[in-house]
Amino acid sequence: MDINWVRAQFPVFNQDPEMVFMDNAGGSQTVGHAITAISEYLTHYDVQLGASYSTSAQAAKILQQATQAVQTYLNAAHIDEVIVGASSTSLVRILCLSLAQGWQAGDEVIVTDVDHECNRAAWFELEKQGIVVKTWQVNPQTYELETDALLDLMTNSTKLVCFTHVSNILGSINPIEQWTQLIHQHGAQVCVDGVAYAPHRLIDVQAWDVDYYYFSTYKTFGPHQGVMYGKRDLLNQLPGFNHAFIKTSPYKFQPGNVNYELCYAMGAVVQYLCDLGAGKREAEINRYHLKNAYHQIAQYEAELINPLIKYLHQHPAINIIGINQSTAEKRVATLSFVHKNIDSKTIVEHVDPYQIGIRFGDFYAVELINHLGLREKQGVVRVSLAHYNTADEVEKLIKSLKVLFL
Ligand SMILES: Cc1ncc(COP(=O)(O)O)c(C=O)c1O
How far apart are CA 15 and CA 33, in angstroms? Predict the structure, then answer.
């Protein structure tokens, strides 16, 4: 991967060359293509869609192209399977309210204690209508969600299993395809959080056969919104969450207008990724280029995080919260740790003056931090790298940590 080319695509690195951004799982930098797209849309196409005059028709056309780009990115079979919303959290709420209308008291949903509250809190709300919500607990020794533990929870009443593809704290990649197959065999559906996965590996909803899958575009080099995939057959059966006369997907899951300029910008993010994969500007938007881009990202990030994992792993006072390998198959470049004697807040505040943006806390994975007993440590220190970070930046972080850890 040509890191100089990559960094040149992100205007922030020209504006603020000294700042090191390592809180990317919180929010990534926005690629220049997407920033330009927002301005372009608002300058030239800022009209209501669906009218017969030329600007409205043109706006509809470019938005359709941007949504097709996102469809390609997800590998969704149909464009009406792509739903956009203000955030992942709001999309999960809408899905939850839609699904629950078809469920009875006594029906069951399984959530994990690893997930961000986004894929938990909405489902727990359903307890008020008699839905049973069960928790699939992480093994605190291995940091893994074990398949046997899931099987123990599943019954004939299980309607849905909600799990994360990658935990925003642990960083390890869960076997989505295997779990989805197993859950389908038991007659249930899956709702998968891809927020911490999408910036690092390519989504393929058809290969995994997932029912619902979502990610946040502001953590994937774009603007603040969320995207949810749902299987067409399933979406068609759901009542939706919009005016009663709006009966088709995605509109029935998108109450009010969506942010057109941000939807347009998401197409520009996909364009950037295809350009990266093709090694040239304005490359064709296709899966081949996307696969190539993410292959480069995966290899680059695995090497990038390796020295940090090595340093933290060999330090006797540090405990990595998650697997301590950097192989691209097993984990993404999101790494959390705690120190035996220094709380996580103190560590982050020590690093702040070095102009390195890292962070401490529970990152809304509240139950994971509770279950692992890390609350009194002020949660974990999380370093979340993206493909635009450099080896020098990682070295700078390690040096700053050494000052504190000795
Ligand atoms: C893993 C994960 N899931 C879901 C979310 C929620 O995303 P949004 O802000 O788009 O609702 C976050 C945000 O931090 C996250 O890290």
Answer: 16
Phi and psi, residue 353, nearest 5°? -65, -15
Contact by Cβ (8 Å): 367, 208: no
- The domains of the chain are located at 3-30+291-405, 35-271
- Closest ligand 1 atom number to CA of residue 89: 11
Is CATH 1.25.10.10 correct for 3-30+291-405? no
What CA–CA distance (Å, rounded) separates 329 from 210? 20
158 versus 327: the higher-pLDDT residue is 158
Nearest-CA neighbor of 72 among 262, 232, 266, 249? 266
**What's the pTM value of the predicted model, to 2 decimals?**
0.98
Q: 140, 166 in Cβ contact below 8 A?
A: no
* CATH code for residues 35-271: 3.40.640.10
Question: Is the CB of residue 115 below 6 angstroms from any atom belonging to ligand 1?
Answer: no
Regarding the beta carbon of 172 and ligand 1, being less than 6 Å apart is answered: no
Question: What pairing do the DSSP bridges indicate for beta strands 356-357 and 20-21?
Answer: parallel
Q: Relative to the CA of 25, which ligand 1 atom is closest?
A: 16
- Token look-up 């709420």 returns 93
Structure tokens at 7: 């960094």
Residue type for 124, please? F
Q: Report the C-alpha gap between 363 and 349 in whole angstroms.
A: 17
Write the pLDDT tens digit of every residue in 45-81.
999 999 999 999 999 999 999 999 999 999 999 999 9
